[in-house]
């Protein structure tokens, strides 16, 4: 079971890293004036929603019998 939890954590950390990378790219593009403020707000909102979903699913995965569905 520890191996399964480890693999799950790695997957969630990988997904989190992808969302954070997208946010950094959005900030960089906004600062160099490649995207306007409205687009930046949309991207930031989307990234925040995705990050929130990842954290919720990570907590469900770690602290509930939710992981029994995936076994």
TrEMBL record:
Keywords: Membrane, Transmembrane, Transmembrane helix. It comes from the Bacteria. The chain crosses the membrane at residues 6-24, 48-66. The keyword Transmembrane applies. This is G-protein coupled receptors family 1 profile domain-containing protein.
